[in-house]
Design goal:
304 residues, mainly beta, Lipocalin, 2 helices, 5% helix, elongated
């Protein structure tokens, strides 16, 4: 495939797919980047995620046209030279393979064309092939804080007739993020429960510490969904309440974190025992078993 063979619609499609960011959104248009896999054009998007200005992480996603091209995501690490508010706006960037054998790429961000770098990131090239992209125009911006609908679902299986949750009015959330409260919806004649938490999403250690402290950091009293951690170091938010199963009530805390593009959930309770893998838990001496099927969906069954 050559540049001339791309249709107008294809050229239009080869643009950045802007992803929701945390503290920065990096926006970079596609430019005829020739790679070893035979592709010629692709789109790039990245999200900056960091705890402070000196330790950001960049997630670079790619998609494109051409032979043997697979969409992929790379994770890159580096530093900014200034605080976010001073770096917003138009920027220029280089994206280059600096070690083809090891598959290492480097993204350099400048506020002016051919200017002094304000951010340098390196990481694995994954599916990007050999990157040679220099002095291209991009954009850095800080997105507005946003409240999201964060759902966690409990679905009853064998022997489960009712699942309920009463919010305990205690929570922890990253400073500056909105908190809209907790709402519940029952379905399937009461055997399915959806908890909707209106809250912002920004990982921080304070919500994780609050969550861990509810069971004194005891990993046998915690479990998590896909991509979670046995003892989370950072969470978006956490809250407590009473989970009732077939009328039996248990004190629980729940927290949401993230892993890559997934928003996973963690559940802790002094009245629960988790398995060694920390992905299954039991209540009431093994009477009820609870396990995750994806990042936000849990199932509950009655064992005896």
């Amino acid at each position: 495939m050559t540049t001339a063979e791309l249709t107008k619609d294809e050229k239009t499609a080869v643009k950045i797919k802007k992803k929701e960011g945390k503290d920065f959104i990096g926006e970079y248009p596609a430019e005829g980047l020739l790679g070893m896999g035979g592709f010629l054009f692709y789109s790039l998007g990245c999200v900056f995620v960091y705890d402070d200005v000196t330790q950001p992480t960049l997630r670079l996603s790619s998609d494109g046209f051409g032979d043997d091209f697979d969409a992929d995501t790379s994770e890159m690490f580096g530093t900014f030279t200034d605080v976010p508010k001073n770096l917003e706006g138009e920027c220029w960037f280089d994206l280059e393979t600096i070690d083809f054998e090891e598959g290492v790429i480097q993204l350099t961000i400048m506020k002016e064309k051919h200017g002094i770098p304000v951010g340098v990131f390196t990481g694995d090239s994954e599916g990007l092939g050999e990157a040679i992209l220099r002095n291209k125009k991009g954009k850095l911006e800080i997105p507005a804080t946003k409240e999201h609908n964060n759902d966690i679902i409990f679905e009853g299986k064998d022997g489960i007739e009712s699942i309920e949750f009463a919010y305990g009015n205690q929570y922890s959330i990253t400073d500056g993020q909105p908190w809209g409260g907790v709402e519940t919806t029952s379905s399937n004649n009461g055997s399915k429960l959806t908890i909707d938490v209106g809250a912002g999403r920004k990982n921080n250690k304070e919500p994780a510490e609050w969550y861990n402290d509810t069971v004194n950091g005891d990993t046998t009293k915690m479990f998590h969904s896909r991509g979670g951690k046995n003892v989370p170091k950072k969470l978006h938010f956490a809250f407590n309440g009473i989970l009732s199963i077939n009328g039996d009530s248990f004190n629980v805390s729940m927290g949401q974190g993230e892993d890559g593009w997934y928003h996973n959930w963690h559940i802790a309770s002094p009245e629960m025992v988790s398995t060694e893998s920390r992905k299954t838990g039991t209540f009431e001496g093994g009477k009820y078993r609870i396990w995750s099927t994806d990042s936000y969906h849990f199932k509950i069954s009655k064992e005896w």
